[in-house]
Specification:
Blueprint: H1 4-28, H2 33-56, H3 67-91, H4 97-104, H5 107-119, H6 125-142, H7 157-179, H8 185-210, H9 217-245, H10 247-252, H11 256-264, H12 274-294, H13 299-307
Helix pairs in contact: 1-4, 1-9, 1-11, 2-3, 2-8, 2-9, 3-7, 3-8, 4-7, 4-11, 5-7, 6-12, 8-9, 11-12
Length: 308
């Protein structure tokens, strides 16, 4: 049961982050990318502080970390939250939720490359095949079964922003996996979110003082969702999973985001096609294949796995 908990949490996290693609676009119709990020993390930090107090009580904020650990927490905040959300929000100003989710699906491969250079972690042939299978499922969803449309993808400024998001987010997961595995996931999420909130507030301060806040109910409902579920819950769960199963396995689950993005697009008036369901099943197959391959390391075990 304990082994299944991180996998279950990863699926829920990807569902929340897939919803963020659509909900963020709702908020961006009312407010600027930096302003949206600031209010999202304001409520996110409130939720995290509540989780911290519930979990640790009066000792919630008694931290005894070395200067080196504080530095890595800041790097996690800077790359994994501040730059990630910066590129995410600005990217969704000009690109679609579906296009963004396709680019985000590169995170597992990017994380694997970073892990090779910074942690000397190698992937066997079966794991690489599993990643390729997952990417095939992603592609099938996003081109509606017509793989010839892949050549017609248009990379605008928004697409480039999302690609940078995938890069900095993957880098942050390697930092967590290598240097911060001994820190409680809730503490790490809360501290990094507070640091990110300060950065967002500083850079958006002129706008916060000059521009009136939106009065739309849909705006505030969306911000609350992103703050409490898309931030407080999702980041806590994800960092917990990175510490338990590693950065490469955790980011592989990001291939579920395009599938959930398509499913969640249905309430917004978009049709769901059979090839998208098939693509989602292929993604899940790739994830399962990757986990099986991970548990059969070594030449003789790998040969045994391939014979089954």
């Amino acid at each position: 049961m304990k082994k299944l908990l991180p996998l279950f949490l990863l699926v829920l996290t990807m569902l929340c982050w897939a919803a963020n693609f659509h909900i963020t676009k709702v908020t961006l119709a009312f407010y600027s990318p930096m302003g949206v990020a600031t209010w999202r993390f304001f409520f996110g930090v409130l939720g995290l502080v509540g989780i911290m107090y519930f979990k640790f009580g009066k000792k919630a904020f008694e931290f005894i970390f070395s200067v080196k650990i504080w530095w890595y927490v800041f790097l996690t905040s800077f790359f994994g939250i501040f730059l990630t959300i910066y590129f995410f929000n600005f990217g969704l100003k000009t690109t679609s939720a579906i296009n963004g989710s396709l680019i985000i699906a590169t995170s597992p491969a990017i994380t694997a490359v970073f892990s090779y250079f910074f942690q000397r972690k190698k992937l066997n042939m079966v794991q690489w095949l599993a990643i390729a299978v997952s990417f095939f499922g992603v592609a099938l969803i996003l081109v509606k079964g017509d793989l010839g449309k892949l050549a017609d993808l248009q990379f605008e400024v928004g697409d480039v922003y999302i690609l940078f998001m995938a890069l900095v987010f993957s880098l942050s997961q390697v930092i967590v996996s290598k240097y911060l595995v001994k820190i409680d996931a809730t503490q790490l999420t809360t501290l990094s979110s507070i640091m990110a909130l300060v950065l967002f507030a500083v850079f958006s301060m002129p706008e916060l003082l000059r521009v009136a806040l939106p009065g739309s109910l849909s705006f505030w409902a969306s911000v609350l969702f992103m703050g409490f579920l898309g931030t407080s819950f999702a980041y806590t769960a994800f960092y917990y999973c990175v510490m338990k199963v590693g950065a490469t396995t955790s980011t592989l689950y990001m291939n579920l985001i395009p599938f959930f993005t398509v499913v969640l697009a249905f309430p917004f008036g978009e049709k769901l096609f059979g090839e998208q369901i098939v693509g989602g099943l292929i993604i899940i197959l790739g994830i399962l294949f990757f986990n099986v391959a991970k548990n059969h390391q070594g030449p003789w075990k790998l040969k045994g796995l391939l014979k089954r």
